[in-house]
């Protein structure tokens, strides 16, 4: 599933910033214009079989395509290994499935948004805004099945809270934080808070820690200056996933160190 989704994400990353439909026209070689045959569109394997070149004109095919497919497969597997047990761990399987689907969806758009932000310094509304509907519906359905409406209310607080923090930063430091970051913060705040206050706190803090560290490294090596534009979306997403996977453990250790655990 991850391989197939990764193949589609390659289309999304290429076409969405250009304002092209992800459905039509069919994928074609940018060099010769020949439509890609079905048997040349098998994730990873086709690229290997073609030795990274178009079958018709022998133009090179970027290694990023199979890398995205393989990375998405690995990331989907990690999500499944970590969260599939929640489906059968004492709760409703339907509720656990809703959570799993929400996280797989978030992982898919995380890959697409990170690559698009790196390429264009944009987080397109066409991906971010529908994510609100998807995560609210999936996690709302999970709460309806399990009866855990506390998690859903907490998620709403996370959406408003993290979105407000980013909005204040965007208004206080013009040019330092884009409105795309603000919109994405609401989605991430909703999912993180649904999982708990610990994941929200860790995920929110980790974004600034990771992004700040990366910026300092670039400046110390002379590859960026104080006014250089560095996409923050990938660090928001990386921080959020750190909160999702390790938030409860890190938060418990932090409270324990303060004598509050």
Automatic annotation (TrEMBL):
The keyword S-adenosyl-L-methionine does not apply. Residues 1-82 form the Prepilin peptidase A24 N-terminal domain. It holds the Pfam family Peptidase_A24. It is found in: Cell membrane. InterPro entries: Prepilin_IV_endopep_pep (IPR000045), Prepilin_pept_A24_N (IPR010627), Prepilin_peptidase/N-MTase (IPR050882). Keywords: Cell membrane, Membrane, Transmembrane, Transmembrane helix. Gene3D superfamilies: 1.20.120.1220. It is a multi-pass membrane protein. Residues 105-215 form the Prepilin type IV endopeptidase peptidase domain. The chain crosses the membrane at residues 68-88, 94-116, 123-145, 151-173, 185-218, 238-260. It comes from the Bacteria. Belongs to the peptidase A24 family. PANTHER family: PREPILIN LEADER PEPTIDASE_N-METHYLTRANSFERASE-RELATED (PTHR30487:SF0), TYPE 4 PREPILIN-LIKE PROTEINS LEADER PEPTIDE-PROCESSING ENZYME (PTHR30487). This is Prepilin peptidase.
């Amino acid at each position: 599933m991850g391989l197939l989704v990764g193949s589609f994400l390659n289309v999304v990353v290429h076409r969405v910033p250009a304002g092209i439909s992800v459905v039509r026209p069919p994928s074609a070689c940018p060099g010769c214009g020949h439509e890609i045959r079905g048997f040349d569109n098998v994730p990873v394997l086709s690229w290997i079989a073609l030795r990274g070149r178009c079958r018709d004109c022998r133009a090179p095919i970027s290694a990023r395509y199979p890398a995205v497919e393989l990375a998405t497969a690995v990331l989907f597997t990690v999500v499944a290994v970590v969260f599939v047990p929640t489906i059968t761990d004492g709760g409703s399987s339907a509720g656990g499935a809703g959570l799993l689907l929400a996280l797989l969806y978030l992982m898919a758009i995380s890959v697409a948004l990170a690559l698009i932000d790196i390429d264009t310094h944009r987080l397109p509304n066409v991906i971010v805004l529908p994510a609100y509907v998807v995560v609210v519906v999936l996690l709302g359905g999970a709460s309806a099945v399990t009866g855990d409406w506390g998690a859903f209310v907490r998620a709403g607080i996370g959406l408003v809270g993290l979105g407000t923090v980013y909005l204040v930063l965007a208004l206080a430091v013009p040019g330092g934080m884009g409105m795309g970051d603000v919109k994405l913060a609401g989605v991430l705040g909703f999912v993180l808070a649904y999982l708990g206050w610990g994941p929200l706190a860790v995920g929110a803090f980790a974004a600034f820690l990771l992004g700040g560290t990366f910026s300092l490294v670039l400046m110390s090596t002379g590859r960026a200056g104080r006014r250089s534009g560095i996409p923050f979306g990938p660090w928001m997403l990386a921080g959020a996933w750190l909160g999702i996977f390790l938030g409860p453990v890190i938060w418990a250790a932090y409270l324990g160190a303060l004598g509050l655990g």
